[in-house]
Specification:
Order of helices and strands: EHEEEHHHEHEHEEEEEHEH
Number of helices: 8
Shape: globular
Length: 270
């Protein structure tokens, strides 16, 4: 399904390039302004900027949800990430919940990118008062849902209500989830990042740090990093990236969760 284009020049400044993983999170893996990306389908590897369209959905959800709920979740997580990089080792209950929200948002945005919601046409008469493209965009900018003159509602306007419902259901499912800080042992390699981790509750933070659900703060050796990177590669739908892929050990086989849990030194100091 082709994304709907804005008016020439995008006069209402609607966000059309929508990152599934925030640009700021990608930038933590960047050197010289970019990350090294391997594209699954083509097999090509090249360096791309964190602003590259590969990392974005194209107008899959509306402006309101991008700068509302999604933005709030991103801000809360980035504040926690900054504290981790400053040395924080423990999280309050609300911080654990904020990390869970961020993980869920990443997974759900990827799913919406892969399968955008279709426009919906209701069995109704055409709107009493026709609206033009400029009015549609004005309404979207201000968070107002609308029907086009043909009686259809853009699928992107429906992502917000859908996201709220799915997010609430998954918050219940993951209630009480705690997150540990997993650090790569110096000289043992770096973590890479998939476009989605799917069922695995893992959030890469930097080339040396991952957040992992249900684990204590730990240190990962070469084998453990290889397991995590193997899971990342196997779950990647379109691409995976790293600061330097040559520094990322990858064990290319299916890895069960229990294998990951025993793959690193739980007695290490994170």
């Amino acid at each position: 399904m082709r994304p709907e284009r804005t008016q020439p020049g995008n006069p209402h400044r609607l966000t059309t390039k929508q990152h599934t993983l925030p640009k700021r999170s990608i930038e933590r893996f960047a050197i010289d302004g970019g990350v090294e990306v391997h594209e699954v389908k083509s097999g090509r590897t090249r360096r791309r900027s964190a602003a590259d369209v590969l990392f974005c959905a194209e107008r899959v959800w509306d402006h309101r949800i991008e700068h509302g709920l999604m933005g709030d979740i991103e801000i809360a997580f980035q504040q926690i990430a900054d504290r981790i990089l400053a040395g924080e080792r423990t999280f309050a209950p609300d911080e654990h919940a904020a990390i869970t929200d961020y993980y869920l948002l990443w997974i759900l945005r990827h799913k919406f990118k892969q399968r955008p919601l279709a426009d919906q046409k209701l069995r109704m008469r055409r709107p009493e008062r026709p609206i033009d493209k400029d009015t549609e965009e004005h309404l979207e900018k201000h968070g107002v849902m609308f029907f086009r003159n043909d009686g259809t509602m853009p699928g992107r306007l429906l992502v917000g209500p859908s996201l709220h419902g799915i997010l609430d259901d998954n918050r219940v499912r993951m209630a009480g989830t705690t997150w540990g800080i997993l650090r790569a042992r110096p000289g043992h390699g770096e973590f890479l990042v998939p476009d989605t981790f799917s069922m695995f509750s893992i959030v890469p933070l930097t080339p040396e740090i991952c957040l992992v659900a249900g684990m204590e703060n730990s240190v990962a050796d070469f084998r453990a990093i290889g397991h995590f990177n193997g899971v990342a590669v196997e779950n990647s739908a379109q691409y995976y990236f790293a600061r330097n892929l040559n520094q990322c050990p990858i064990l290319k086989q299916a890895v069960a969760r229990h294998a990951i849990e025993t793959a690193f030194d739980t007695n290490g100091q994170a």
